[in-house]
User: Which sequence fits this backbone?
């Protein structure tokens, strides 16, 4: 009896520590935060252990990124069903249905959270998935349908709040966000932005959106040629520092955000088995 009571006391003492380990560091999406100088650093394209209060980002292809947390949660944006030869069942996938290069109609049923960026035609969809360490939410925007007409609220900008950071993925954005949509997004520290210049937004409009969001780190995506990417980098170089990384991955943390808004160019690479 005494032994059982002793065990119960030990478990009770452990519970606060367990709960604390699962808590999410508060983010500042709706309020600007001061940052300190520094840059993110490149790490190997594998599934590494992520240090506390850091986020691992890997540019897979097109508009797909792996976002990995300290606790080992794996989230893939604009998921097409293929991330490479390394076996991976993400904990969360987000999808937009502008083209089949942004989604799959048959996500693996083993994926716990497969989040569509659209709902019934014109109705949009609302997500707020709280996994403790990570909060995933979305802001619906319009999109062009396959017949070049407007599908209201057919796209989602997904936001990942984790490690004190707000990480935003613009998806297949087709118009500048409204004032209400900007307000719903709030502060975005790290932004994945399509810079193709035509399939999504015209380049001048996309640049305007990026300047308005004032993210500390912008990662270009959805570029089909070096010409489109170079045009974007040239157009933004007056206000943003440009860092071209050789690899496809980086770690980010709130205490190492650049003091000057910075475009960080990652080279897409599937997540393959290391031989």
Assistant:
């Amino acid at each position: 009896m005494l032994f059982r009571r002793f065990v119960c006391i030990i478990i009770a003492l452990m519970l606060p520590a367990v709960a604390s380990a699962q808590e999410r560091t508060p983010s500042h999406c709706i309020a600007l935060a001061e940052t300190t100088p520094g840059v993110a650093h490149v790490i190997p394209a594998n599934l590494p252990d992520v240090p506390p209060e850091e986020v691992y980002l890997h540019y897979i292809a097109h508009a797909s990124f792996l976002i990995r947390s300290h606790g080992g949660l794996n989230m893939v944006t604009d998921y097409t069903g293929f991330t490479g030869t390394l076996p991976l069942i993400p904990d969360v996938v987000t999808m937009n249905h502008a083209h089949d290069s942004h989604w799959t109609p048959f996500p693996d049923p083993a994926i716990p959270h497969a989040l569509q960026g659209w709902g019934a035609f014109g109705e949009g969809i609302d997500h707020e998935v709280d996994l403790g360490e990570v909060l995933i939410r979305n802001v619906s925007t319009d999109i062009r349908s396959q017949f070049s007409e407007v599908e209201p609220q057919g796209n989602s900008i997904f936001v990942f709040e984790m490690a004190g950071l707000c990480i935003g993925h613009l998806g297949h954005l087709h118009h500048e966000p409204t004032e209400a949509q900007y307000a719903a997004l709030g502060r975005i520290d790290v932004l994945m932005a399509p810079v193709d210049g035509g399939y999504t937004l015209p380049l001048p409009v996309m640049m305007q959106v990026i300047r308005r969001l004032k993210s500390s780190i912008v990662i270009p995506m959805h570029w089909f040629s070096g010409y489109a990417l170079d045009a974007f980098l040239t157009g933004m170089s007056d206000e943003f520092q440009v860092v071209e990384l050789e690899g496809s991955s980086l770690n980010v943390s709130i205490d190492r955000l650049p003091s000057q808004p910075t475009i960080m160019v990652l080279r897409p690479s599937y997540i393959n088995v290391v031989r």
Notes: Residues 1-21, 31-45 have pLDDT under 50 and may be disordered. The CA atoms of residues 100 and 256 lie 36 Å apart. The chain has four helices and 14 strands. The longest helix spans residues 2-22.
